[in-house]
Amino acid sequence: MIVVQIINGFGNQLFQYATARQVAKRLGMAVKLDLSAFGRLDNVWKFQLDYFQCDYQIATEQEIFELADPYIFHTFGFGFTKKLHVANYVSPTHFLERTPPYDEKILSIKNNHYLEGYFQHERYIDEIRPEIVKEVQRLREEFVQFDEGLLDKIKTCNSIALHVRRGDYASNADINKTYGVCSAEYYQQALRYLEERVNNPHVFIFSNDVDWCRNELTLNVPTTYVSGSFDPPVDFYLMRACKHFVIANSTFSWLAAYLGDAPDKIVVEPERFFADFNHKFPGTPEPDLNVESWIKF
To answer: Which of 95, 97, 181, 290 is the most exposed place for a label (fewest CB within 10 A)?
Structure first.
């Protein structure tokens, strides 16, 4: 079996799950999720993969302890060893992602393993993409929070999903120094590019700062503000249904665009996803979320 630590927001959870699915598929194994970080390490986010028909089981405490390094599991957080390079890290069945953007050592896994990391690279999930696309095509009925007319509108027009990620990226000085935020100029340039190539476009805005969008973006095409009342996986579901994308420096919209299955989709992404990655992660290589076929501004 492949057990994977699930932590942080929906985008990170989906990357972690999909990476485990790809490893498990290669080995013919089942995927089990370690959800123990929620409430123990992560009091901000909650587990949200259950909004979709994902293929996993929940790992028991015994299964976690059989595979995860005991030293790491008993410290305050799994990231502790990664930062301090503690010599006690000895478990041969605990894969700890140490070398972003892509740690090729993951290919050497041959047996039951525990996976820990963020796995923010296309190569971690490219082989499993068709299966993940199928799993996120439908929300579980109990999580549908929108009028079906909205989804029909997205599917029947030349929809452009525009994602603006601000919130703590803008308000928290430490986080802002690490990640930064995409500027109004980036979004305007991306929209101009798409407006020249998409007939009768309709922009659907997804953001945790709708007021900023209204005040800072000049929109010359029909526009619908989607975000504000839906849970993140519901926003993700609606965003993924769009035909074209302007994404933020965010795994959330990166995955929505990557898993979008509209033919001839155009995706615009920022050239850089981090303002200063080493500010928060000194000495660690920067993740690379650029996709060769996507347009970069």
So the answer is: 290
pLDDT (tens digit per residue) in 25-66 = 999 999 999 998 887 766 678 999 999 999 999 999 899 989
In this structure, of 25-39, 129-143, 158-172, 261-275, the range with the lowest mean pLDDT score is: 158-172
- Tokens 């690279």 sit on residue: 121
Task: List Cβ neighbours of 36 (8 Å cut-off, separation of 6 or more).
Answer: 61, 64
Residue with structure tokens 């109004």?
184
Helix (H, G, I), strand (E, B) or coil at 99: coil
From residue 138, alpha-carbon distances to 25, 146, 166, 250, 288 in Å are 22, 13, 27, 22, 29
Both tokens of residue 129? 């993409």
C-alpha torsion angle, residues 22, 280, 289, 207 (rounded to 10): 100
Q: Which of 114, 81, 113, 110 is nearest to 98 (CA)?
A: 81
Helix locations, the chain, DSSP H:
10-27, 61-67, 70-74, 79-84, 129-135, 148-156, 168-171, 173-179, 184-195, 210-216, 232-240, 251-258, 277-280
* Contact (CB, 8 A) for 42 and 72: no
Query: For 227-238, how does the pLDDT look when each residue is reduced to its tens digit (9 = 90+)?
Result: 767 899 999 999
Cα 37 to Cα 4, 59, 202, 264, 285, distances in angstroms: 11, 12, 40, 39, 24
Q: Which two tokens stand for residue 18?
A: 């999909």
Q: What is the DSSP letter of 85?
A: T
Residue 253 and residue 72: Cα distance in Å, rounded?
A: 31
Closest CA to 236 of 163, 159, 132, 152: 163
pLDDT above 90: residue 170? no
